[in-house]
Write a structure and sequence with these properties.
Elements: E1 4-8, H1 12-24, E2 28-33, H2 36-46, E3 50-54, H3 62-72, E4 78-83, H4 87-96, E5 100-104, H5 108-118
Parallel strand pairs: 1-2, 1-3, 3-4, 4-5
Helix pairs in contact: 2-3, 3-4
């Protein structure tokens, strides 16, 4: 059975790019969210195996959403996605419990490497 992934990003094009990469490589994208609030709600609803979480989003940023998800399930696997100039936020996300990170603009190989590592496949 394919690993189930939730994509949370405020940019529809990023969600589409991630979905294309993941589904083409055998993963099941079970849902999408456009901000941290949606991400937390979708996590509760879908119980995915992994979440990709943008750090900078309206309403609730990815770090706050990640904290809420980890409070619900301390074993949740979350990969954060960030721009190169957001080092402080990235370091905070890692301290909070991110399994890995991807820097935008991202390469397919880096996305797959982070996902495989989060699942212990690499």
């Amino acid at each position: 059975m394919a690993h189930r992934i939730l994509i949370v990003d405020d940019a529809p094009i990023i969600r589409l790019m991630l979905k294309d990469i993941l589904t083409a490589n055998g993963y099941a994208v079970v849902g999408e969210g456009g901000d941290g609030n949606e991400g937390v709600e979708k996590f509760k609803e879908l119980s995915p195996d992994l979440v990709t979480m943008d750090i900078t989003m309206p309403e609730k940023d990815g770090i706050r959403a990640m904290e809420e998800i980890l409070a619900l399930d301390q074993k949740a696997r979350i990969i954060v996605i960030t721009a190169i100039d957001q080092r402080e936020s990235l370091m905070e996300a890692i301290r909070v419990g991110a399994a890995d990170y991807i820097i935008k603009p991202f390469e397919t190989d880096r996305v797959l490497s982070a996902v495989r590592r989060a699942f212990g496949e690499e």
